[in-house]
Amino acid sequence: METISIFLDDYRKAPDGYVLAETIDECIELLKNFDIKHLSLDHDLLNKTRNGFMLVQEMIKEKLFAKRITIHSANSIGGKAMYNCLKQAQHDFIMSPSIIVSLRPLPLNFFPPKVLQHYLELR
Q1: Which pLDDT score is estimated for 112?
Q2: Residues with Cβ < 8 Å from 89, sequence gap 6 or more?
Q3: Is-contact 96 88, C-beta < 8 A?
Q4: Closest by alpha carbon to 65, among 46, 47, 79, 85?
């Protein structure tokens, strides 16, 4: 199975080397069909009824994970809820404790060089 990294966002461009998913449905399809090295998630998407938190819930239900997961949402409440949900899944042994889960909010209009380093180190 081919290995890829996914960047879920409907506003920001994906960093080099990442496949952009703009909806949770696109992201779920990629999770089902590829081995995911790194999954970077936004909370707020254009479809207000299908956001990043709903994706995290579906990932846990279907046991669709990546080797590393970053929550990059600028929505502090939504991002923390996603992070806490994933950490609870690890605590409950639904998701492997070896999966690295990070909360690293990104600004909407640019990627500061030090923030992008987090993505460059994963290659």
Answers
A1: 61
A2: 60, 95
A3: no
A4: 85
Q: How does pLDDT run across 75-85, given as a tens digit for each residue?
A: 999 999 999 99
Q: Which two tokens stand for residue 23?
A: 């909806």
Per-residue pLDDT tens over the stretch 88-106: 999 999 999 999 999 998 8
Give the separation between CA 85 and CA 29, rounded to whole angstroms.
Answer: 21
Q: Locate 96 and state its tokens.
A: 């492997």
Give the tokens for residue 60.
């846990």
